[in-house]
Amino acid sequence: MSDVPTRDADGMIIFRPKPSQPPPPNTTGVIGWLRFNLFNGIFSTLATLIGLAALVYVFLAFYDWAIVKGVWEAQNRQECRLGKEWGTCWAGVEFWFSGFIYGRYPAPEIWRINLAALILVLWMAPLWIPRVTAKSVIGLSAVLVFPFLAGYMFLGGERNLFMVAVVPVAMVWFAATMVHVLLCVLTGHGLGRWIIHLTGFSNRSDRAARYPLMAAAAVAWLLVLFAIRDWTLVEVGTNRWGGLFLTTVISGIGIASALPSGIVLALGRRSKMPIIRILCIGFIELFRSVPLITILFMATTMFPLFLPEGLVFNKLASAIVAVCLFAAAYMAETVRGGLQAIPKGQYEAAEAVGLGYWKVMGLIVLPQALKLMIPNIVGNFIGLFKDTTLVSIIGLYDLLGMVKAVSHDPQWIGLHHEPLFTAALIFFLACFAMSKYSQYLERKLGAGDRR
Amino acid sequence: MAIDTITEQEQLKSAVSDEVVVTMVSVNKWFGDFHVLKDIDLTVHKGERVVICGPSGSGKSTLIRCINRLEEHQRGDIVINGVVLDNNLKNIDTIRRDVGMVFQSFNLFPHLSVLENCTLAPIWVRNMSKREAEEVAMEYLTRVKIPEQAAKYPGQLSGGQQQRVAIARSLCMNPQIMLFDEPTSALDPEMISEVLDVMVELADTGMTMLCVTHEMGFAKRVADRVIFMDFGEIVEQNTPNEFFDNPQLDRTKLFLSQILAH
Question: ∠B229-B233-B239 over CA atoms, to 5°?
Answer without folding.
Answer: 45
